[in-house]
Amino acid sequence: MRFTDFNFHPNLLEGIEASNYEIATPVQEQVIPPILEGRDVIASAQTGTGKTAAFLLPIMNNLLKNHVDGKTGALIIVPTRELAIQISQHVEGLSYFTHLSSIAVYGGNNGDNFINEKKALQMGADIIVCTPGRMIAHLNMGYVSLKGLQFLVLDEADRMLDMGFQDDINKIIKALPAKRQNLLFSATMPEKIRQMARKILHQPAEINIAISKPPAKIVQKAFVIYEPQKLPLVKKLLKETPYKNALVFCSRKQSVKQLTRELKLGKINVAEIHSDLEQSERENVLGAFTAGRIPVMVATDILSRGIDIDTIDLVINYDVPGDGEDYVHRIGRTARAEADGIAYTLIGEKEQNKFAAIEKLLEKEVEKAEVPKELGAVPAYNPHFRGSGGKPKKRFYHHYNKQRK
Ligand code: AMP
């Protein structure tokens, strides 16, 4: 579905075009129509699906049609200031050709910012994006009026509850007019989110863009280890696990090249595949792999989508993939057709938090297998251990339009 099919305000369409959006993503296609119809919505969708524009566009369209000067039209509550900044940048981009104003209200910055936020809140920006604590601080000062509010959005609701914001959210809701449209977005839908939804939403349209789960017949195991132990463990797994074809995934092509070199030195018959290879070279590698001449292939994520080779019965994630969707795609390369499959994931000490987030999304805890003693001491399992680079990556939606054209 193209954005021109939604009957959006022409000035909003200009902003959409300037953002280079042409085709609506699946969540946008499903979420925009009920919001335009005035319905409450509960949607399970993770970051990267285009969910932000899915709620921003119909809200902005409505505010452009029913604009009330000096009144806040929409309040978007989010768990972190990074997300508040990101969403308000999104608003700025999409509203560039309109008169809609917006402000981000989040904690932790200096007093000047608080004063600016206060001014904007007193004047009433059309769209407020806020973190709960900071919004309460302003509400407590008594100068915020949200009387004209038409939309309440709770984004990443599961994270907000995990961070203990339930009471703050309830307090904010008490300051809102009873008649309003409510939109709730969450990556996961545990019972506590459903309970909250029952209290806040009225006969919502329910939209589910949750990631697909991996087939149950794949045996999933994970090893928590120090980074230097990964190479000896992969060698051992490749030597001792029976398989026809094994696919080893690395997130970066540099690691693919390095690992392939090391495995070759370890006398393992292995080839590499990544975007530095010409198309014909990739086809040769795949041909040799499929025919069984080379039983092991080391690959970047380009291979995790769409490759359908029935004989792959072992997948090893040399590192933890970027997100749940990549994990599902990677391990889904095994156990195709009737075959069974094993998927091992090597979790570096600093990747534990990242893997825990994937498990949460899949609503499944993956068994942590014992690391062979000869590899030495391993880190204690700690799902909260956070390494560097925890920021979610920008996903593939800029490719999405190209694919769909
Ligand atoms: P989100 O899931 O909202 O964090 O969006 C993920 C990324 O996809 C952001 O960089 C958006 O700018 C981009 N995006 C959202 N919708 C579209 C679309 N329909 N076409 C292309 N890119 C999009």
How would you portray this structure in words?
By secondary structure, this protein is of the alpha/beta class. It folds into 2 domains: 3-208, Rossmann fold (3-Layer(aba) Sandwich), CATH 3.40.50; 218-404, Rossmann fold (3-Layer(aba) Sandwich), CATH 3.40.50.300. The protein is built from 15 helices and 14 strands. The protein has helices at 10-18, 26-36, 51-65, 81-94, 111-123, 132-141, 157-162, 166-174, 191-200, 230-240, 253-265, 279-290, 324-331, 352-362, 397-404; strands at residues 41-44, 74-77, 102-105, 127-130, 151-154, 181-186, 205-208, 218-225, 245-249, 270-273, 296-299, 312-317, 341-348, 367-368. The strands form 2 sheets. The protein has a 7-stranded parallel sheet with strand order 3-4-2-5-6-1-7, with helices on both faces. Strands 10-11-9-12-13-8-14 form a 7-stranded parallel sheet, sandwiched between helices. The longest helix is centred in the N-terminal third of the chain and has 15 residues, at 51-65. The radius of gyration is 24 Å and the shape is elongated. Mean pLDDT is 88; it is low at 389-405. Adenosine monophosphate binds at residues 21, 23-25, 28, 47-53, 394-395, 397-398, 400-401. Adenosine monophosphate (AMP) binds at residues 21, 23-25, 28, 47-53, 394-395, 397-398, 400-401.
